[in-house]
Amino acid sequence: MKNLIAKKMKSLFMILGVIGPGLITVNAGNDAGGIATYAAVGASYGYRMLWGLLLITFSLGVIQEMNARMAVVTGKGLSDLIRERFGVKLTFFAITILLIANFGVVLGDFAGVAASMELFRISKYMSVPIVAVGIWFLVTKGSYSRVEKIFLFFTLVFFGYIIAAFLAKPDWVNVFKQMATPTLKMNTGFLLTFIGLIGTTITPYMQFYLQSSIVDKHLTLAEYKYEKLDVYIGAFWGNAVSFFIIVCTAATLYKAGIAVTSAGTAAASLRPLAGEYAFILFGVGLFGASVLAASIIPLSTSYAICEAFGWESGVDHRIKEAPAFFGIYLALILLGSLLVLIPGINLMKLILITQQIAGLLVPIILTFMIFLVNDKTIMGEYTNTRWQNIIAWITVSFIIVLSLTMFISPCFH
User: Fold this and answer.
1) What is the number of other CB atoms lying within 10 angstroms of the CB of residue 241?
2) If you average pLDDT over residues 122-133, what whole number do you get?
3) Using one digit for the tens of pLDDT, what is the confidence trace for 7-25?
């Protein structure tokens, strides 16, 4: 009996020691731009897109598991593998895609920091610089283990969205009924929003960050089954948060006919409709989510670029040991925070456009991944199963078909 308890306790400690990359990666996707997109989905279309979110959850779990498997089998990041398998030109193309998508997201995250604190009457000229400096010191002065623990702490803020959704008192029967009823409208507005939903749920940065963070954590095949659990929990939890954000805004803003122009306006609009507590929870959630993503997205970019060119990378390094890694990180934080501080600038349009660009670019990154994970010279016996390939290719094909439909549909109106 004692041996059984000891074995169970050992497994529990192993799970707790490994869990982190999957959970952090998906939660960072629920950033300011993500919250704005989910809030816009709920406010504009009610519960009609929830069925899509349900399907995306399964796809996300499969895709993240592919990343985790490649990381523990090869011990290399995604951009490193792309360079080795496809050459420098295609690697440069992939990194350019990531940089475009990520820079817009970083802007959105610092805008989210500013908007969330302005809800509580704290000027962006105070909040944004403090957060930018705090993020820099967190990543440059800590080990990977310490940084990961702090990132995990920030994931707790997402409980606020769940509570806010219940405070909004939705019709749960109608919620689950529409979740089980696929709806797809052939107009540009609906399709763009739907692509934005996909683009903020399965993003280019996720694939690069997750794989690099697992490598940075030095996880091995012996710990793969625990990391597999981590990515599946992360996929479920991250999209559960997205679900509650959509439900919250659908039950309040959609009913009242209030359009969402940003995550901040979504929070402010909730105050008279769902009460003070819902407003506070949404605002605090926005701040925590923005800080987490403003830390993770530049880190994802630094990992990817340095791996692509064979430069030293990793949070465990000192600045002088990995100058390019920390230099890129600093540049993204500085540019993102400084642009947000420009008086009178409205970044919401840019945020939504970058989410849509991310949605359009996801198939390109996923295609690289599918070819890599099925290459026996790289993965050996750990290549994809038939079902994993089917789900991955359906996801890629679905996004491509949606994108083509979006461009073609105006011709028929």
Assistant:
1) 27
2) 90
3) 444 444 344 445 556 667 7
Q: What is the CA radius of gyration of the chain?
A: 21
Q: Is the pLDDT of residue 140 over 60?
A: yes
Domains of the chain with bracketed CATH: 48-182+191-373+384-412 (1.20.1740.10)
Cα 31 to its chain centre, rounded Å, is 7
Q: Which of 66-80, 201-215, 318-332 has the lowest mean pLDDT?
A: 201-215
What's the rounded Cα separation, in Å, for the pair 254 and 96? 37
CB atoms < 10 A from the CB of 137, how many?
A: 10
Residue of 318, 350, 304 lying closest to 107 (CA atoms): 350
Written as six digits, the tokens of 33 are 């731009």
At residue 11, the pLDDT reads 46
* Secondary structure of the chain as H, E, C letters: CHHHHHHHHHHHHHHHHHCCHHHHHHHHHCCHHHHHHHHHHHHHHCCCCHHHHHHHHHHHHHHHHHHHHHHHHHCCCHHHHHHHHHCHHHHHHHHHHHHHHHHHHHHHHHHHHHHHHHHCCCCHHHHHHHHHHHHHHHHHHCCHHHHHHHHHHHHHHHHHHHHHHHHCCCCHHHHHHHHCCCCCCCCHHHHHHHHHHHHHHCCHHHHHHHHHHHHHCCCCHHHHHHHHHHHHHHHHHHHHHHHHHHHHHHHHHHHHCCCCCCHHHHHHHHHHHHCHHHHHHHHHHHHHHHHHHHHHHHHHHHHHHHHHHCCCCCCCCCCCCCHHHHHHHHHHHHHHHHHHCCCCCCCHHHHHHHHHHHHHHHHHHHHHHHHHHCCHHHHHHHCCCHHHHHHHHHHHHHHHHHHHHHHHHHHHC
Cα-Cα-Cα-Cα torsion 165, 104, 284, 51, nearest 10 degrees, comes to 10
- Distance, CA of 6 to CA of 16 (rounded, Å): 15
